[in-house]
Design a protein that fits this description.
heterodimer, A: 718 residues, alpha/beta, Rossmann fold, 31 helices, 8 strands, B: 89 residues, alpha+beta, SH3 type barrels, 4 helices, 6 strands, 27% helix
């Protein structure tokens, strides 16, 4: 089993939108570890802080939940950790409940369930300032008395108000709440009956054990279709039989037993709220109300939505352009430095052409990814994301999906991996699978470099305004999006048939975003991206450099090495091209050329496509290596300039507008990302789905590009 | 003035006044879900806006739900729930 830890470990739980993650960030700062729960792609976040006496205190941020009766995979993780059912995560010894002070009634439903688990618990009454500004006065002491645990008011976005909470978390002893839900006697008898059998089977546990009683209650309350799987998960053993018997007893003696279970809790909560905050005039959030009148309006809402999306995509190109040119310049400078410091030879070429050019070409796009994640974080933090899902439900329900599926799809604009991870909030397994299958069709930021390069090749300097370029970019994104919706519709109609799910979600109040939280998320994403650049992409860059440089074409190499001349740039370039053709990569490119020639691609693009199979952005670095473009300070657009001058053996241009378009369409549709396939494999727990995803996407890409190129040629386009 | 005349599905209810949930249709999974978010029997709710989807004020929060789901929730005006059933408490 798990080694006994010498420091306190708290599980942080609460409703979604209760400010749980903001509080977690305020407590732990950057001392966080982001991982995954094995088997499910639910993010596992833990962090540490130093307590009052200098001791380490560990916090585990559990996914937000509305109830221990879980509906979605992320809620199941929370339930399983709290019940000690996950073998990879020890049951926490203490609990920190985060409660939104302005929504006591809603939050207490889950929190009273958690209190019944009988663990030492502290409640953080978050956003107390917001509640006060809305005229909600809470008697914190009374609340603490009623719930029988410490309740500490705080504002997660103000560091100084978090201090009392830190002190409370450092306490050596925290009491266990004596809160217990009173239920009609048939219910209590049913729980007693199940707990007695269960306790007997587990031997060491008493039947009064609060954890065991909660498990018994959850088992009894589970829907008919789920009781067996839940019993297996909770290792109920022989308790399942008695639970089924007790349920038929309940059916007879208390026909409304399911209804009573929920309403009894709400009745207690209503009493509690009356005691702790007085039934003040139902204070409502006027700002949220007014904003929602516009932002969820059937007509104005869409204007707002399109405006926000437009602003987001424009920022990605306009704001990110500056840091991108700085990064490019830095890598150009580094490349030159290497060329000056290291003598001519393979080592120099490896470092400057392989490593620096390869990584530089990819890292350049970091600013765009950061801007995208900034916007996504902002939309989530302000509460707008739920409205976007609300609006999009009308579109999504047309293809048989839930409005919530929109959020993973939107995240997939940044990267399909967090997008696929965000599908964990979708309750229905089939809908989740459909969303996972189509998510990579949303143009991710790795495609962005390819789009940018090809659009630059489409419009050599000055022939098109930034607006036209932006419009084409927007068009590509829309193309990907509509294709995704189309395939979702198709899948829901064929292989994953099911009813359109019911739409039910909370619209959290609008809030000022916590920039600290948004930036933290950006940093974590940037880290993931750079790690990938440092490993997969570095490896591929080096491999490609090797494949493109060996075997050496003997004559040209000797001549080039012995008489380095500055006047023979033209001959050097043709030498390089000849060398490439002679290399392994050249052979392979020629090998696949017959397959891709109908799409308008030549063997050099073929090498790029093969390399991009690992990760799309590698296409750029591959082209940079193939065409021996040096990242030069004076020629930041050097790659696109080289591309538009590139000719086929017969003298015609390679990168005609039609070819560029064909490449663009291919990249919109095809599945070229090993990491995504790996995540899909883990999420679906099968090889079949990632394989299917790869085939349908790549097949669609091939057909669409074929149609564009051959159709264009028939129409007489070049 | 029988209660049945005032009983309407939430999807047909009027936005504005306080409503009282009377009954839920649908399978137990959907019902449990609705109850747990606050649409349990006798709960007081308010319809804020109608359209393709509806927005409700439930338990102090705003909940969005589809018209299809709203059809499963039977409500009556809060005032008539006071007169038809004996007063709560």
């Amino acid at each position: 089993m798990h080694p006994k830890k010498h420091f306190k470990c708290y599980a942080v739980v609460g409703n979604p939108n209760s400010g749980k993650t903001t509080l977690f960030n305020a407590l732990t700062g950057l001392r966080q570890k982001v991982g995954n729960y094995p088997g499910v792609t639910v993010e596992k976040k833990s962090g540490q802080f130093i307590g009052q006496h200098g001791e380490k205190i560990e916090l585990l941020d559990l996914p937000g939940s509305y109830s221990l009766n879980s509906h979605a995979p992320d809620e199941c993780v929370t339930r399983d950790v709290l019940l000690g059912l996950r073998s990879d995560t020890p049951r926490p010894d203490r609990i920190l409940c985060v409660m939104d002070a302005s929504h006591l009634e809603r939050n207490l439903y889950f929190i009273t369930q958690v209190l019944e688990l009988g663990l030492p618990t502290i409640i953080a009454l978050n956003m107390i300032d917001l509640a006060q500004s809305q005229g909600i006065v809470i008697d914190v002491q009374k609340l603490s008395q009623e719930l029988d645990v410490p309740v500490i008011a705080c504002q997660a976005n103000h560091q100084e108000t978090v201090l009392p909470l830190k002190l409370a978390l450092s306490r050596a002893e925290i009491n266990r709440s004596s809160w217990a839900q009173k239920l009609p006697s048939p219910w209590m008898r049913a729980i007693d009956g199940v707990a007695a059998v269960w306790a007997h089977a587990e031997e060491k546990t008493s039947q009064r054990d609060p954890l065991l009683r909660m498990k018994s209650l959850l088992l009894l309350a589970s829907p008919d279709a789920e009781i067996e799987s839940l019993s297996k998960e909770m290792r109920a053993g022989s308790a399942l039989g008695i639970a089924l018997a007790q349920r038929s007893m309940l059916d007879r003696e208390l026909p409304l037993w399911r209804e009573v279970l929920v309403s009894a809790r709400y009745d207690r909560i209503t009493e509690l709220c009356q005691a702790a905050q007085g039934r003040s005039s139902v204070a409502s959030d006027a700002m949220t109300h007014h904003l929602d009148e516009v932002l969820t309006h059937p007509l104005w809402g869409w204007f707002g939505f399109l405006g926000i999306m437009g602003l987001m995509f424009l920022s990605i190109f306009v704001i990110a352009a500056y840091p991108m040119s700085w990064i490019e310049a830095t890598f150009g400078f580094l490349g030159n430095l290497v060329r000056e410091m290291i003598p001519q030879g393979d080592l120099r070429n490896l470092i400057s052409d392989g490593i620096i050019a390869g990584i530089g070409g990819v890292v350049t796009f970091l600013p765009q990814i950061l801007v995208l994640f900034f916007f996504i974080g902002l939309l989530e933090d302000t509460g707008y994301m739920a409205r976007a899902a609300f609006l999009m439900d009308r579109v999504m329900s047309k293809v048989g999906l839930h409005g919530k599926s929109f959020i993973p799809l939107l995240s997939s604009y940044a990267c399909a991996i967090p997008g696929i991870m965000a599908t964990r909030t979708i309750e229905n397994a089939k809908d989740r699978l459909v969303t996972i299958l189509v998510a990579p069709l949303m143009s991710c930021s790795a495609r962005l470099p390819v789009y940018a390069l090809m659009i630059a090749a489409l419009f050599p300097k000055g022939t098109a305004s930034i607006w036209i370029q932006g419009a084409i970019m927007m068009g590509l994104y829309l193309f990907g999006t509509f294709t995704a919706l189309g395939f979702a519709w198709l899948f829901k109609k064929t292989i994953l048939q099911g009813e359109t799910p019911v739409f039910l979600m909370e619209l959290p109040p609008y809030r000022c975003p916590a920039f600290k939280h948004v930036f933290l998320q950006m940093i974590q994403r940037a880290e993931m991206f750079l790690k990938r650049a440092g490993t997969v992409i570095l490896g591929i860059s080096v491999l490609l450099w090797f494949l493109a440089s060996f075997p050496k074409k003997p004559s040209s190499d000797a001549r080039n090495g012995n008489t380095p001349s500055q006047n023979t740039i033209a001959s050097a370039t043709s030498d390089k091209a000849a060398q490439l053709e002679y290399s392994y990569a050249g052979h392979f490119g020629h090998f696949i050329e017959p397959v891709i020639a109908p799409l308008g691609f030549d063997w050099k693009i073929g090498i790029g496509l093969v390399a991009a199979q690992a990760a799309r952005e590698v296409f750029i670095s591959t082209l940079a290596i193939i065409y021996h473009v040096e990242n030069d300070e004076e020629h930041p657009d050097s790659l696109s300039t080289t591309l538009i001058q590139e000719k086929r053996p017969n003298g015609t241009l390679v990168y005609t507008p039609l070819t560029c378009l064909s490449i663009l369409v291919f990249f919109v549709l095809s599945m070229q990302c090993i990491s995504t396939l790996a995540v899909v494999r883990r999420e679906t727990n099968s090889l079949r789905w990632p394989l299917f995803q790869f085939c349908y996407m790549t097949g669609a890409a091939y057909l669409a590009s074929l149609l564009i190129y051959q159709g264009g040629r028939l129409l007489g386009l070049m | 003035m029988s209660a049945s005349t005032t009983l309407t599905p939430l999807s047909e209810a009027e936005a504005g006044p306080i409503l009282s949930v009377v009954r839920l249709d649908g399978n137990e999974k959907v019902c449990r879900r609705l109850r747990e978010v606050g649409f349990c029997e006798k709960a007081e709710i308010r319809l804020l806006s109608r359209g393709g989807q509806m927005i409700c004020h439930v338990c102090g929060t705003r909940l969005a739900l589809s018209r299809k789901l709203a059809k499963k929730i039977w409500v009556q005006p809060f005032s008539s729930s006071l007169s038809t059933s004996s007063k709560k408490q």
